[in-house]
Amino acid sequence: GQIKEVPPASSSDDGRPRVTWRGDGQFVAVSAICPQTGARKVRVWSRELVLQSTSEPIPGLEQALAWKPSGSLIASTQEKPNKHDVVFFEKNGLLHGEFTLPFQKGQAKVNELLWNLDSTILAVWLEDLKKEKNSETNTYVQLWTVGNYHWYLKQSLHFGSAEKSRLVSLLWDPEIPYRLHALCRGWHALCYDWHWSTDCSTGDESHLVANVAVIDGDKVLVTAFQHSVVPPPMCTFQLQLQQAVNQVAFHTDPTKSADLAVLDASNRISVYRVGDGTVKDPTVTLGGSGFKASVETPHLEKTYRVEVCCGEGKQVNPLAFRLFTWLQDDTFLAVSQGQLATHSVIHHLTEGLEAEGGLSMPVDGDVISLCCNPKTRAIALQLADGQILKYLWGECKIPVKMSGLETDGCHGTEAILGLTDRCRFFINDVEVASNVTSFARYDEFLLVTTHSHTCQCVSLRDTSLKVLQAGFSSSSTPKETLRKMERGSRIVTVVPQDTKLILQMPRGNLETVHHRALVLAQIRKWLDRLMFKEAFECMRKLRINLNLLYDHNPKVFLENVETFIKQIDSVNYINLFFTELKEEDFTKTMYPSPVSSNVPLQQYPDQKKVDLICDSMRAAMENINPQKYCLSILTSHVKKSTPELEIALQKVHELRETVSPAAEGVTAEAALKYLLFLVDVNELYDHSLGTYDFDLVVMVAEKSQKDPKEYLPFLNTLQKMETNYQHYTIDKYLKRYKKALCHLSKCGTEHFSEFLNLVKDQNLYNEALKLYPPDTPEHQAVGSAFAEHLNQKHLYEQAGLIFARCGAFERALDAFLSSGSWQQALCMASRLGYTVDQLAGLARSLAGKLVEQRKHAEAAILLEQYAQDYEEAVLLLLEGTVWEEALRLIHKYSRLDILETNFKPAILEAQRNYLVFLDSQKTTFTRHRKRLLVVRELKEQARQGLLDNETPNCLEADLISETSSIVTASDMSGKYSHSNSRISARSSKNRRKAERKRHSLKEGSPLEDLALLEALGENIPCSDLFLAGEVHSLLKGLVLFGYDELARELQQALEEALQLIERSLPEIWTRDLQQNPANPVGAWLGRGSSLRGAVGCPTAAQ
């Protein structure tokens, strides 16, 4: 190929080499003129001076050279045939990107390029090329930044042509990234601190403007976010100016927030206003990069220069004004440098007035930021030392520190929000968070982005600073207020009366998010204003559950159901609403209200929410236009908690019978097809069958996947049947057995056997008995079947009663005998006409069973009255210790000989047995009591030893209960419980065994004291049994026959036993133990006190 010739360096090149190091010091780039060709080349060397690369031949390459500190690119300049570019090299020497400087060819030369510390700003130092020898040369410094691969000229500083203002040196600060130092010939040193700010309009509810302006050299790019979201460098419209723009200010009046003013590098203010639609301004063009939107554009109303007097004593400062703010219609506020470095001057700039006129005020301090409250028009100034001043239109004073925020809450109190370059976020003088990267305030909300890549939205209404601080530092932030986002995102603006939050990514592209807190707040506002359509569309688009439409305020929704339907005015949307309905209250679960709401409770607490809405809306739709809302009416039936499918199917059938459907109505076919979409086809087929309407059944079956060969024969068979039997067959097929039974009962006696089989199969005896009158044979047959069923379930007494009702006395007698109901059994025997001998045999059989159950008195009645065997009856009474009844029978039949042969020996034997039993009870009770006291003493000693081994103030000492004699299984039996872990609890027998093993009376067992308490507790009811009549009755018998000594002996033994128990009660069951609810035997305590009073047998011995 041909060798490309490179022309030599331009005449404006100073010919000197340039050296620039990469940020990490590993490589160095050198730009020098090649001796052979006379053209400039850039070579990259390692720090060991090993050549890495040489740049490709670039015609017109100039001397300026700067390696980006982040290391990716090397910047230089190139003069091209028709333009002047800043070009970028990679480390390998190849070109990678460029941008054009806003000068004609040969108009200016670039002295230096300088990157700031964090590689975000490129400073370009230029000066005019001398055309003639004595002509003046102007010096410029331009600051460029890149976003979305587009280079923006953000600031242009014109140092003028005066000798003393000529720039000698330009340097970025090595520590503070946005600080730029400049030195002029007149020994004026300038220090600029730059910071990023987003210029956006402050629209209110009546003026929905969300415009954001971007400075791009001599253009201002404006994006109207309420119309469209387009990423820069695209825009909605752009303003073309004559000079490079330095500052932009939107009107602070919310009603005029689309108006904007521009301050350019030559201190000219251009005012652009929106409103007069007839004026077409050629400097305002729609769109950018091929994008267009139909919005109202502003027009240039006027331009005027603000004169800055520069006398001999004045400082050189190309940026005459900073913090440019539009105060009111013709008044602008700006800050300039004072006579001293630490002083500032506030200027009111108006048309025709010089900045040095009367409307200026010196401030003792360096003003670094300024903000205006659009509602109150109050202006706050921040000084470099951190002080906040309030500018009161003509005076400047320092107010007391605003600490009222904490007590009054943020709402309704003026407060200043601030963010430092170290991400510390302040409200007034209180640091609220330390990881905030950007913030915005909208309505009652504060939105912040954080280093943890989240966007947090908190309500300032009725919120104290402490709550805000806690909210920002808490890890468990509510889901509604927190949202994850892309790393490095920053807030641009919030679109008013919308839910859009615009974020900018580090590369420059935009992202729109709908923050849940903003969305819900806006939906709540719409619902409060009954703007259902806006709320519905927003909820549908952003996937908010539609239950909120009702749950937000149930009373208001139900009162305005017709309004809701008319606003939505879409069958599909209403159906969507129905299908999302759920019983839960979403304001308590998914979307809790940020403030306590005053919404009244539901008016109809008995009715389910879904049913209530379905009924209300169906009534409203039938009232408005039943034809139009036909499908929605069907949905309201299907979506009820118990779906009303029969009614829905009936409505479809009615549609079919309508000759000509209304113009906006639906056909029966369409309605059925829709119903099949909501309900499973087989379920719908069954329900249609349940209407007994065969036309409807065929209509549904045709839409299903069912084979006509299957369902048509079945339907034909049904149609041939008698109506009641047909209904019975259908109900049985659908397993609606109660209904089937009802229909079958009307089919006549020939189907009664089928009826009875159905009753037995489905256990429907109660229902069946109601279907026939009591005196009919069918009722008797059902009753007998029911009684047999009860017999099989071993419910003998109930079976006997049913048998008796039905007249089956034999079966009733068997049932009563099995249940032991001897009175009923004798009644049945009487109904069956038993002879005296048969009755006697029956009585003896029953008496034997009663004796087994220890019911001696009842057995004696049977023997005496039915078997006429009073002797056997007396013997049974003596066996059962029923002394007085035995005496009655002996005297009734004048058999006093039995007194000597049987009665007296029996009472003497009983007295001896009671004495032996009482003696053994006393011995056992005393032994257990003594052992219990010993065990308690040992446990107390062990506890004291445990405490002595620990520190005096040990926590455990306070925790050990006074009632340490009751120990739970987990306290003292760790090893014991482990050994028992294999004990299975599969049966109650095993459980009882395990329980006995746990509470063992064996000396030294872990829970011996518990076992002793239980054993002692059992002794009290045993003693109490004697007083329930047995001993009392025996004592009366002994006294009657003159055995006074024996009676006295028995009574004394009983009294001693009871006194022993009474005396022992306080020491066994101490007061602490009585109050312990876990005490397993404390239930007997109340009984001990009554024992003494029960011993009151009046005997002759007393």
Automatic annotation (TrEMBL):
InterPro entries in the record: A-sol_ELP1 (IPR056167), Beta-prop_ELP1_1st (IPR056164), Beta-prop_ELP1_2nd (IPR056165), Elp1 (IPR006849), HB_ELP1 (IPR056169), Ribosyl_crysJ1_sf (IPR036705), TPR_ELP1 (IPR056166), WD40_repeat_dom_sf (IPR036322)
Protein known as: IkappaB kinase complex-associated protein
Domain of life: Eukaryota
Location of the protein in the cell: Cytoplasm
Pathway involvement of the protein, from the record: tRNA modification; 5-methoxycarbonylmethyl-2-thiouridine-tRNA biosynthesis
GO molecular function annotations of the record: tRNA binding
Domain ELP1 first N-terminal beta-propeller: start-end pairs: 10-175
Biological process (GO), any one: tRNA wobble base 5-methoxycarbonylmethyl-2-thiouridinylation
Region (Disordered): 971-1001
Domain called ELP1 N-terminal second beta-propeller: residue spans: 214-492
Annotated ranges, domain ELP1 alpha-solenoid: 516-718
Keyword terms: Cytoplasm, tRNA processing
PANTHER family (UniProt xref): ELONGATOR COMPLEX PROTEIN 1
SUPFAM superfamilies: ADP-ribosylglycohydrolase, WD40 repeat-like
Gene Ontology, cellular component aspect: cytosol; elongator holoenzyme complex
Naturally occurring in which organism (per UniProt): Terrapene triunguis (Three-toed box turtle)
